[in-house]
Please model this.
Amino acid sequence: MFSRDLLVTRKRKPYITPVYIHPEEPELAAQIIDIYKEGKTKTEIDEQTALLETHRTFRVVRGLSELMRRRTTFEADYAVEPKAVREYLYGKGYVTTTKQRHVVVTEAAQHFDVSAKDIEASFWADREEYQKVTSVAAVSPSELVKYYNLSLTQTLLFDALSLEFTTSGNYQEIFRIIKYLGLMYELNANETVTVEVTGPASLFRKTKKYGTSLAKLLPKILKAPSWKLKARVETTVAGEPRIYIFELSDTKQEFFPDIPTATESFDSAVEENFLKRFQAVRKDWTITREPTVLKAGPSAMIPDFSLERRGKKCYIEIVGFWTPEYLKKKTEKVKTLQKEIILCVNKELQCTKKDFQKKGVDIIFYDKTVPLKPILERVRKIESEQLAEEKEKLSETKIVLEEDITSLEDIAEKYSVGIESVKRILEEDETGAVIGNKFIKNSILEEIQQKIESLENMQLETVKRILDQYNLDEIVLERIGYRVEWKTLDVESALVKKIR
Model:
C-alpha cells in the first residue's frame, strides 16, 4: 500500500480506476531496480531516482522506488562509532580554516587508530540518509510492476465505503481475515454468492475508517482461481467529495502478482481420511474441499466438502471440533441454511438429531471415522434422481444417430447427460442394439453376421479380423448368435461357434 499522494487514477464518471502499468512494459521498473545496488547510501539512491521523475511520472517513479525500498536492507557503515567521533571533534572546538580542519581530523584518526578517510565517513554514518544498502531481495521488473499495481489498488481502497465481491475459492482465508479485521458482511446467494463487506459505521453514514481494512482484504480475494469485485470509493473532485465506482475482475489477473498460497492442510485427520476414502471408491464424482460459501441466515457457512457430478451437487459438513460456543453457532447456521447438506457429527458431542432438525439436512453420527455407506447411499439416491431427469430430457429430445456405430460417450457429451441415461433410452430403440459402450445399427450387425457365416475358418483370430474392420470386439458375437469356445488359454486355439 502507498500513501494517498502516490495514487494515480483515471476518472470517467461514474467510474474510477487506477492507472496500471502493463507487466510487459517494465522499462521504468528496470531502471529503478538498477539504482538499488549494494554500497549505495539512501541519499545517493534518492538523488538518482529523482533524475527519472517528470511531471507526468513522478508518482509512478516514487511508488516503484518505495516498493524497492521495502525490499532493501540498509545499515550504518562506519569504522568508528559516529557518536564517539563527533564528541572527540566537537571537544576540539571550532575550526575556521581548511588547514585547521585537516589537523583536527588527522589527530582524530591517530586517536582512534584509523585513517582520516574513515573519520570523515564515520562522522554522520549513523544518520538514516547515510546508511548503505547491504542487501536487496531479488525481483524482476515485471514482478515489481505487478506489486506496484496491487499497491495502487489497495491505496484506492483506502477511501472505499464498501466492497462487493464474488470468488471461486479461498473462502476460509477470506472470511478469516474479514472476522480478524472487524468488518461486517452481507451475503446475497443466487446462482453465485456475492459478499458485500462494510465497516459497522458504514451502515449509517459514509466513513473512511475501514478503507485500510478493505485494502488488506484484497490480496486474499486475488488468491482465488476467479474473482470479481466492485467498490464504492469516495474521492474529491473540484474540492467536493464524490462517490465513484471501481470495478475489477480476474480478466486483469496478469497485472497482479501471484499471491503465495499456503500449503493445503486439513482441520482434522477425520476430514483427510474421508476425502481419500471417497476418492478411492467413487472416481466418477468430484469431491472438493471448502467449495463455496453458503448463506446461513445473516452468516456465511463454508462446507467442508462438496460432491458433484454433472451439475448435481451435495454438500458435506463434518462436525468434530467441540466447544459449547462452536456447537451453538454451528446448529444455528444449519437451521438457517438454504441448501441441502449432509451433516457428519461426532458421537462424542452432546447433541442429537433434534439439535440440527431441519428439512434438507441428513444427519450421520460417526465414531473416529466418517462411515462411507450412508454417504454412498445418499450419492446413489442423487444418481437415481439424475437418471430419471436425464431420461425424461432425452425422451423429449429424440436422439439423432447419424453413424452406423456410435459411442454412447459421444452421445452423452452431445446431450449433456450421463452414459447410463443414454443406454436406458437406446435400449428401447429397435433400429439397433446397445452393445458394451456403443450403439450398433441392425444393418451393421446383419452385415457382420453374414461375413462370419461365410468363413471356413472359425478360429477367433480369423473372426477378430472382421470385427476389427468395424472397430468392435468379441462382445458383439453373442448378440448375433455366436460364442467363443476356449480350449486353452492360448487365443490361437479359441473357436467361434454358433449358439444353438
